[in-house]
Amino acid sequence: MTQRFEQIYADHREAVRAYVRRRAPDPLVDDVVSETFVVCLRRIGQVPPEPLPWLYAVAWRTLANERRKQARNTHGQPLPVAPPGPVGDGVLAKAFNALSERDREVLRLVAWEGLSLSDAATVLGCSGVTCRVRYHRAKARLASRLEVAGSFRAEPKEVTR
Amino acid sequence: MTDALIARLAAANPVPNDGLHQLAERVGVRTSRVPMRRRWLMIALATVAVLAAILVATPAWALVRDVLPFWNQPSAPSSVKVVFSHMNRGAPAGMSPQAVSGDSREIEQATIGGETKTLWVAPSTGRFDFCWIWGPNLAGTCSSSAQPLGVVYTTIPPHDPGQPAQTTNIPANSGYPENGVPLWVTGSAISSTVSDLVIRFRDGSSVRPHIVWVSAPINAGFFAYDIPADRQSSGDHATEVDAFDQNGKLISKQTIMGG
After folding, report:
1. Residues A39-91: pLDDT tens digits?
2. A158: which of A80, B23, B93, B259 lies 20 to 30 Å off by Cα?
3. A38, B86: Cβ pair inside 8 Å?
């Protein structure tokens, strides 16, 4: 058991850390990563053969708990340091940040973590079909916002005559 | 359209990784990979720069002391990483030492109280520079370079003779009114300021504990002194730990409250 944990930790620590850094302000990162692996160790018998999506799901829940705790401590005020968004593309960042958190997360999982929709569904705790629908709607909403900003033009759809 | 959109989002990843290139290739978008020859040149130049920086930045103490290279030490087992994680989780809001449990290392072993104990050290990214634990079940704390000396001592408080003795770990200078006499003293000293340590006893005698110096990112020395049985009496116990700089000047004194 402990040997498996050691292997999971060695193989996926950097990926989990990167996942958390993409979603959390720096002061929270170490705590969330540590807690994710504490949960992994406690539940090592439940970790699936491909552990990374499962670890992302744990990190996501841990981060949500941490945000709630911080919100209580700051009496509902926003965290002093915002989580990171897209970099190097201001128009994209603005459009992305205007999406709902649910839309942003499914897009992050595919674009930043490079997950398949099936693995993204594991992280999000939904079925593959639901995840696919959620993903396509999120992409459409992002494209729409970029088109409004004049920064993206969808390829014309073929019209059957 | 959507593949181009996802590729654009992938290129704006705030924490990029190699997966970016894989994803970009998957969706048919070229990314600006550095050519292999140029990468090797960059790696070589970076290595030279790092070596030069180490030579320039290594203070004189590192040239005369035996300094243990932290990153070459064995990684801590998961059970110890969990303990460091709990240090973070158990702290009040905003007070987490932010010990990087995954980077914790085994530093040395010593016989303390008749048992083999291991020193584990983890770098910290918070207001402390590192955290340390003598385990199993001994003492530990977190320290910053702003405090040249950190000392934790262990006593057995007075107890019912019919009950087993329980040891208690107490930070020196804490003013915590603990009865009993120190059994062993552990601590850390910051490399850049401390050169020597002295443990003093009530009868005026003193000893110099063995110090293990550890390289960056820790930059500190660690000691664990197992007080001999004949010094574990109320009339003859350890009273303080003194830290001296390289000129022999006293720079920090930690008082042991037992006795």
Report:
1. 888 888 889 999 999 999 999 999 888 878 777 766 655 555 566 788 888 88
2. B23
3. yes
CATH number among 3.40.50.1950, 1.10.10.10, 3.40.720.10, 3.30.390.10, domain A85-161: 1.10.10.10
CB atoms B9 and A92 under 8 Å? yes
Is the per-residue pLDDT at A94 higher than 80?
yes
- State residue A154's pLDDT score: 59
Which value does ipTM take for this structure? 0.84
Query: What DSSP character marks residue A99?
Result: S
Residue B170 near residue B152, CB atoms below 8 Å: yes
Contact B12 A107 (CB under 8 A): no
Q: Is the dihedral of CA A85, A86, A87, A93 positive or negative?
A: negative
Query: What is the per-residue DSSP string for A3-68?
Result: HHHHHHHHHHHHHHHHHHHTTS-HHHHHHHHHHHHHHHHHTGGG--SSHHHHHHHHHHHHHHHHHH
Query: By C-alpha distance, which of B225, B156, B215 is closest to B186?
Result: B225
Among A2, A5, A96, whose Cβ lies nearest the Cβ of B9? A96
Q: How confident is the model at residue B209 (pLDDT cuts 50, 70, 90)?
A: very high
Distance CA B202, CA B252 (A): 18
3-state secondary structure of B85: helix
Domain residue spans of chain A: 1-84, 85-161
CATH architecture of A1-84: Orthogonal Bundle (1.10)
Global pTM reads 0.49
Residue B28's pLDDT is 40
Which tokens is A138 given?
Answer: 């999120």
- Using omega within 30 degrees of 0 as the cis cutoff, is the peptide bond preceding A78 cis? no
- Measured between beta carbons, the chain A residues lying within 8 angstroms of B7 are 111
Sequence-distant (6+) residues with CB within 8 A of B179 are: B155, B157, B158, B258
Residue B103's pLDDT band (cuts 50, 70, 90): confident
Kindly state the average pLDDT of the residues B93-99: 76
Label residue A140 by pLDDT band (50, 70, 90): very high
Tokens of B107: 């530093």
Residue contact B9–A112, C-beta within 8 A: yes
Give Dmax (Cα) for chain A. 63
